[in-house]
Amino acid sequence: MIKEFRDFIARGNVMDMAVGIIIGAAFTAIVTSLVADLINPIIGVVTGGIDFSNLFVNLGEGEFASLSAARDAGAPVFAYGAFITAVINFLIIAFVVFLLVKAVNKVKDAATKKEEAAAAPAGPSELDVLMEIRDALRK
Questions:
Q1: Any idea which UniProt keywords this protein has (predicted)?
Q2: What is the pLDDT of residue 97?
Q3: CA angle at residue 75 from 89 to 43, to 5 degrees?
Q4: How many other CB atoms are found less than 10 A from the CB of residue 15?
Q5: What mean pLDDT do residues 31-51 have?
Q6: Which residues of 53-62 are buried (b: 16+ CB within 10 A; e: fewer)?
Q7: pTM for the complete prediction?
Q8: Is the pLDDT of residue 120 over 90?
Q9: pLDDT above 70 as % of the chain
Q10: Dihedral sign, CA of 90, 93, 99, 100?
Q11: How far apart are CA 24 and CA 97, in angstroms?
C-alpha cells in the first residue's frame, strides 16, 4: 500500500496539481491586492466614493460607523459589501485565468503544429494522391 501511495504521489499529474495549488494561492494574493488597491478605488471614484467592502446593514441594536466597528462589538450584520467585493475578485480571477489558459493553449497549439510539420513525411500530400487517382481514372 505504501508503494502504491508513493507511485501515486510521484505521478506527474499530482505534482502538477500541487504546483498549481501553490501558484494559485500566490496568484490569489496578487489579485486580491489588485482589486482592493487598484480596482475598488477606481470603482469608488466612478460611483461617488462608495467603498463596497464597508457596506453593511446592522441587524442588531446600536449605530456603528463602520463594518469593523460593528463586528468588533459583536453586532449581527448583513455585510453585502464584502460579498460584492468577493464577486468582483472572482470575476477578475476568472478573467485572468481565462486569458492565461488561452495563452497556454495557443503556445501548445503552435508547438503541436510545429511537431506535426517536422514529423510529416516528405512524400506526396493527400491532395496530390487524389489528383493522381483522378488523372488515372480519366485515362
A1: Cell inner membrane, Cell membrane, Ion channel, Ion transport, Membrane, Transmembrane, Transmembrane helix, Transport
A2: 78
A3: 25
A4: 11
A5: 79
A6: bebbeeeeee
A7: 0.55
A8: no
A9: 94
A10: negative
A11: 10
Query: In 19-51, which positions are buried (b, 16+ CB within 10 angstroms) versus exposed (e)?
Result: eeeeeeeeeeeebeeebeeebbeebeeeeeeee
Position 100: which residue type? L
Helix (H) or strand (E) holding 111: helix 80-119
Domain boundaries, the chain: 2-138
Q: pLDDT confidence of 121, banded at 50, 70, 90?
A: low
Specify whether the CB–CB gap between 93 and 28 falls below 8 A. Answer: yes
Mean pLDDT, residues 55-69 taken together? 86
Q: What is the CATH number of domain 2-138?
A: 1.10.1200.120
Q: What's the CA gap between 111 and 75, in Å, rounded?
A: 58
Select from 79, 30, 43 the least CA-distant residue to 58. Answer: 79
Cα–Cα dist 50/38, whole Å? 14
The residue to which cell 507511485 is assigned: 7
- Per the listing, cell 494574493 goes with 29
| Whole-number pLDDT of residue 36 | 77
9's grid cell? 504521489
On average, the pLDDT of the chain sits at: 82
